[in-house]
Write a structure and sequence with these properties.
The structure is a single chain. This protein has 290 residues and is of the alpha/beta class. The radius of gyration is 20 Å and the shape is globular. The chain folds into 2 domains: 85 residues, no CATH class; 174 residues, Vaccinia Virus protein VP39 (Rossmann fold). Helix 2 packs across helix 3, helix 5 packs across helix 7 and helix 7 crosses helix 8. 39% of the residues are buried. The structure holds S-adenosylmethionine. S-adenosylmethionine binds next to helix 5 and strand 4. The site of S-adenosylmethionine (SAM) has 18 residues, from helix 5 and strand 4.
């Protein structure tokens, strides 16, 4: 799609506009993205069209910050419309799956480090179904008797799905699923490793600092936190995906670079260790210890 002779859209969004048959929706998206206002009636028509025609965007609009969205991106969906195809093929969408893969590559290294010292107790905070730990346990630690995971989420539906997934993968005995807010959770025993993925992204720096200060109390001395945040390249390299998430579902992220995440860790009392990212560089995962 060319505007003023300049191609401002990437492959995935160009394909969306090629395949999208509704010319009015297309015209709205191309121009509204570039700042043009259309009035509330037209905006409402486009919103209705998108949520009526996309499982992905309807779910996004229905439940803010839900793991249903991330699960679609991890597993794929039978695309029902050009919008679903777009969500799955956009760089921002593929980067979510890449984040999962990056986590699953790093987690065993961290677990093995703690395992060398004794039993390992892991809390997956805001776990959704907890696919990352289910995959890692099923892949590497099915027969372990020294690793236990507690998946904590407010969303009972996600936890019930996680329990099913874990049992199917024969690691149900290694994971407890707990419905709670992790900010209020009082464990009997403190944890060696905390995982916090997909939670900080929409939060301002000060709120992240408060949140990390709170979860810090869940860790044993020497324990570590792995926490993810969306990084600035997502906004720079896939601005149309950021626009459409905001338009349909009011999803606004606070993109942070490595130094900002490091400073959040340090201001909340963690010793910054290192970071890693997904293959697109769209998410940074920080690691800090207490
Ligand atoms: C975007 S999903 C990410 C799920 C999973 N961590 C992943 O990487 O796919 C965010 C999850 O955090 C959960 N969540 C957010 N704040 C929470 C809180 N204070 N206590 C428990 N769960 C929370 C939501 O219910 C949701 O399931």
């Amino acid at each position: 799609m060319e505007t003023n002779g300049e191609n401002i859209f990437d492959g995935a969004s160009n394909k969306l506009f090629q395949d999208l048959k509704n010319e009015e929706v297309k015209e709205f998206l191309v121009n509204n993205y570039q700042g043009k206002s259309f009035g509330q009636e037209r905006e409402e028509e486009v919103y209705r069209y998108i949520v009526n025609n996309s499982v992905f965007f309807a779910s996004m609009a229905a439940q803010h910050g839900s793991s249903v969205i991330t699960e679609f991106l991890y597993e794929g969906i039978e695309p029902r419309s050009v919008f679903d195809e777009y969500a799955l093929s956009s760089k921002a969408g593929r980067a979510i799956k890449a984040r999962l893969l990056a986590m699953e590559k790093e987690l065993p290294k961290i677990i093995d480090e703690y395992r060398a010292k004794g039993n390992v107790l892991i809390a997956n905070l805001g776990s959704g179904p907890g696919r990352d730990m289910i995959d890692v346990l099923a892949e590497k630690y099915k027969d372990a008797s020294d690793i236990k995971v507690v998946s904590i989420d407010k969303d009972m539906t996600a936890l019930r799905r996680g329990k099913r997934m874990a049992e199917i993968r024969k690691v149900g005995h290694l994971i407890d699923f707990v419905q709670a807010s992790f900010t209020r959770y009082e464990p009997k025993e403190k944890f060696d490793i905390l995982i916090l993925v997909g939670v900080l992204c929409p939060l301002k720096t000060e709120v992240c600092i408060e949140l990390l200060r709170t979860v810090r109390n869940l860790l044993k001395p020497g324990g570590c936190l792995i926490a993810s945040n969306v990084a600035k390249p997502m906004l720079q390299e896939d601005p149309f995906a950021c626009y459409i998430m905001n338009f349909v579902a009011d999803w606004k992220f606070v993109y942070k670079d490595e130094n900002e995440l490091k400073s959040i860790f340090e201001k909340s009392g963690f010793n910054w260790k290192r970071s890693f990212s997904d293959e697109f560089g769209f998410h940074i995962m920080g690691i800090g210890t207490v």
